[in-house]
Fold Methionine aminopeptidase.
Amino acid sequence: MIELKSAEEVDRMAVAGRFVGELLAELAGVAAVGVNLMDLEHHARRRIAQRGAESCYWDYAPSFGRGPFRHVLCLSVNDAVLHGLPHDYVLRDGDLLSIDMAVGVGGWVADAALSLVVGTPDPADLKLIEATEVALEAGIAAARPGGRLGDVSAAVGEVARAYGYGVNAEFGGHGIGRTMHEAPHVANSGRPHRGLRLEPGLAIAIEPWFCRSTDRIRFDDDGWTIRSADGSRTAHSEHTVAVTDAGPRVLTRRPAASLPAPSPGGLAAPA
């Protein structure tokens, strides 16, 4: 069942969203060559506890995975793109890191993700990250009342193809509100003017993720970590967005100073 939120409830989701955005910005600042993934995990645990918030990941047990998830972050490095388990790994120069988190504050949830390169960036990695960010903004722009869910999915998929990347349909975005995963599913490719009508009060997580040279994935033996099937690099961006009468409202924006600058020579958003 799809639950439409009142304006007051969206405001309460925005409280969680602001915290998620701020913490992601902090983590992006902490991530550097020589930092252990578990340092990032424990930093997030401390901040969540200090805020009196709750991780949506801790004890999460979907149909995939092996046992409940016992971390507050998904940390995916290089060819890992989704659900990466924090572990004893020290970041190296040029690593591409994706950080994903979902937190509840006062009974309402927000979910967001970003990708970054630590140390010396490869231009191809910057292009890949940029593609997810441009696709995310395109999906957000399409999340307008009176439109269709297919408009959001089509906007994301069009950007992926414009940048030369394929789209995997197995995992995508989702509804969100009182819990992390609610209806509807938000695919990263679709047909415009099709699907669920977008109404004020609908809250969704839009999350483009792309692999550099494949649209196929594989799971690690841990049952959680998802990697590109061919070992190519990956990137992932996500925001929680509410459809309102005034248009899309992004609830998980990071502080402006933390937003990554466009990559040198990077592609502009497709028209």
Q: What stands out?
A: Residues 258-271 have pLDDT under 50 and may be disordered. The chain has one domain: 7-254.
